[in-house]
Amino acid sequence: MTDVPAIAQVAAPLVDIRDLRLYYGTVEALHGITMGIAARQVTALIGPSGCGKSTLLRCLNRMNDLIDGVRVTGSLRLDGQEVNSPTLDVIELRRKVGMVFQKSNPFPKSVFENVVYGLRIAGVTRRDVLEDAAERSLVGAGLWDEVKDRLQASAFSLSGGQMQRLCIARAIAVNPEVILMDEPCSALDPRSTARIEDLIGELRATFTIVIVTHNMQQAARVSDMTAFLFEGHLIEYGDTKRLFTNPACRQTEDYITGRFG
Amino acid sequence: MKTPSSIRQFWRRGEPGVWASGAALAAMLLGIAGMLAVVAANGVVVFWPHRLCEFTLHDGSRVLGEVQQWQDVRGGGRRVQLKVGNRDLYGLDFRWIEGADVAGTRFPCDAVALERQEYGNFYGYLAGVSAADGGPGDGTGGGWAALEAAWRQARQQREALERLQRGINRNNLRMERTRLRLLRLRHRGVAEDDPRVAGLLDRQAALQREFSQLVAQSNAAAVECRRRTARFVDSHGSEEVLPVFGIVRAYRPNAMGRLAKARFYLGKVGELLFGQPREANTEGGLFPAIVGTVMMVFLMSVFSFPLGVLTAVYLREYARDGLVVRLVRIAVNNLAGVPSIVYGIFGLGFFVYGIGGRLDRWLFPERLPTPTLGTGGILWASLTLALLTVPVVIVASEEALGAIPRGIREGSLALGSTRLQTLTRLLLPMASPGIMTGFILAMARAAGEVAPLMITGVVKLAPSLPVDGTPPFVHVERKFMHLGFHIYDIGFQSPNVEAAKPMVFTTALLLVSLVLAMSGSAIWLRQRMKRRYAMGSF
């Protein structure tokens, strides 16, 4: 145990979370989370199952709205704008905050149509714009060389790892500021996982990435900052290297050394 | 001890489950195949010309007709059922003859079968054809060739007569429209000396003059074309003089080769599909009933499918899953089990008398008490059937929507799409094969339903089709004919049920084929959709 503060202060955070509480009906699932997420960094959320890390992640693009009976208090600001405000345009928010899910979820359309889906629903119809965006996103997701000859093939003809990268390409096609990743590699084999981890390393130059992961080695490998959540509390938040080598809290130490969780 | 242990094993391995389910499937397939086979076997052969058989009986009398069936008689011996036709002479179409009474059997080549406009078939021998003016003939006696020539000429006359009849119908229609317009003006209290009333009265008079002219022409033509007659002798030696005009078809089945019979068959099938019914629907074509059935199913789909799919979308995508939604779902499922006649009564009370009656009072008050919309019609029948089939569509659509993984919805919403965009771009296309299944079930049910139609607009014989060439081309207020009702009507309500039996089978075959054709095309469409929106790895 050292004397570093358990919750690190981030200067000029892109996402500023203050005393965020979330209730499923009457059950409080997040107990006053306060943290800042820096721009153009990879922030990992770790913790045992059910600790609230996915719930916290989904607060960032208000995906929890889809669940009946969810209530949120406290403040969550993105670029200084209150995300939980009832007057906020959720559609606009979700264009700024993309998301990649645990299970890859390509749409039953061609590879091309999957990538440009976000643009199409935003009303883009010009073919050259769509094609440029598709190429840029697929290159960005490291998938271009593999699919450039079969853009019109069904997305389901891709392998599991390719599908997940397609979902990443789909997310970056609309040029978001933040990309949320909810255990993006948990259903993939080690090779595909390595591929996606490399990709995250490349994407951090352009995007702010928040990743939820079960895999502590992965968090250690890909992230700049790590937050450890336990039973809805933010236990520790700090520089990844420091947190894994010199945790401030006993609970963090127990978790990362595999004594529970 | 080998057997008991192997039986135990049989049970232990769970084999009875396989066998029972397999047997159930086999029984079901057998039932369906059996039904289709009976309908097809009886329906397909109806139009194949049967041989005419002449029995000479021990008492010296002769009987000519089509053999229907041989039957074993209790106590030994057999008897034969003969279709003897000539209803106008003997009042009976069929006759049973004891096998023991038959002295000789012959298939005379010159035996003639006639399909007539009235009194069913005639079987006998040709004796002669009169001259065109009804005189005694040209002295050659008038053989088969003369009859055929006379028949062709009569057909031309018939066409001319039909043209005249169409003119009369048109005239009637215009007259009716003028009458209604006049009625409306008078109802509004327009004075009799108003130029509009006067104009209509003039028009009415002109139409009346035209009508008298047309009728006179038509009557003269009708008399003229009945002049030419043909003489026939039946097996008893009775002579029958028939106007050639009244003969629909004359043929000598025993002299026909396979090719001639095939041509005859195709001609009859063509008449069935495109012709008008004759003789209280037991002969002739089913065209009005086919059009009625198809159009009714089509209209039903137009009402039922959007309503069902939208309801399912609301229940599955928008409504919060609570007590109310669950109650609605239970109610919808139960609606599918309500007897169809109950829907019929509801349709009569709500659509026909309720909505139709009210519309009549608003739109056509001058015609009352004669109802326009307040009486059964294809619109009300379709709406009633739409109510009946909508639960099927709702249940199928809801299940199809529910089968789509959550990830698709979340993935789409996370990209900033609205719920409506998610629905129209992803969910509905992905659910479309399942929704199509609901459509197919609904369509098949609607096409086969008879009971609710009987009180909401089906008739035995509709004077005009619900679609035709007179504006506004689609007449949803008209009564219509329906294949299912046709089966019931000719099979159980016609004065000569035995003679109508072949028609019952053909109509049943046609109805089954129609349902198969409609579901078949829907299934084909569903396959294409499935390929397009296959869920691949999910």
Query: Remind me, CATH topology of the domain at 287-532 in chain B?
Result: MetI-like fold
Question: For the terminal residues of chain B, how far apart are their CA atoms?
Answer: 50 Å
Please state the average pLDDT score of chain B: 85
How many DSSP H or I helices of chain B?
15
The oligomeric state of the chains shown is heterodimer
Number of strands of chain B: 12
DSSP helix fraction of chain B: 55-70%
User: CATH top level of the domain at 287-532 in chain B?
Assistant: Mainly Alpha
Radius of gyration of chain B: 31 Å
Task: Give a count of the beta strands of chain A, DSSP E runs of length 2 or more.
Answer: 10
Structural domain tally of chain A: 1
Flag low-confidence runs of chain B. none
Notes on the structure:
The complex is a heterodimer of chains A (261) and B (538). In chain A, helix 7 (160-173) runs parallel beside helix 8. In chain A, the strands form two sheets. In chain A, strands 6-7-8-3-9-10 form a six-stranded mixed beta sheet, with helices on both faces. A four-stranded antiparallel beta sheet of chain A has the order 2-1-4-5, covered by helices on one side. Chain A has 261 residues and is of the alpha/beta class. Chain A has helices at 53-59, 90-96, 111-115, 117-121, 127-140, 144-147, 160-173, 190-203, 216-222, 240-245, 250-256, and strands at 15-24, 27-37, 42-46, 70-78, 81-82, 97-100, 178-182, 208-212, 225-230, 233-239. The mean pLDDT of chain A is 89. Chain A has a single domain (15-256), classed as P-loop containing nucleotide triphosphate hydrolases (Rossmann fold, 3-Layer(aba) Sandwich), CATH 3.40.50. Among the domains of chain B are: 52-124, SH3 type barrels (Roll); 287-532, MetI-like fold (Orthogonal Bundle), CATH 1.10.3720. In chain B, helix 7 (287-318) runs antiparallel to helix 12 (419-448), helix 8 crosses helix 10 (378-402) and helix 12 runs antiparallel to helix 15 (497-532). Helix content of chain B is 60%, strand content 12%. The model of chain B has no long low-confidence stretch (mean pLDDT 85). By secondary structure, chain B is α+β, with helices and mostly antiparallel strands. Chain B is built from 15 helices and twelve strands. The longest helix of chain B has 44 residues, at 144-187. Chain B is flat, with a radius of gyration of 31 Å. Classes of the chains: A alpha/beta (261), B alpha+beta (538). The A-B interface holds A 61, 63, 66, 68, 91-95, 98-99, 101, 103, 105, 107-108, 117-118, 120-122, 154-157, 160, 163, 167, 170-171, 174 and B 320-321, 405, 407-418, 421, 425-426, 429-430, 532-537.
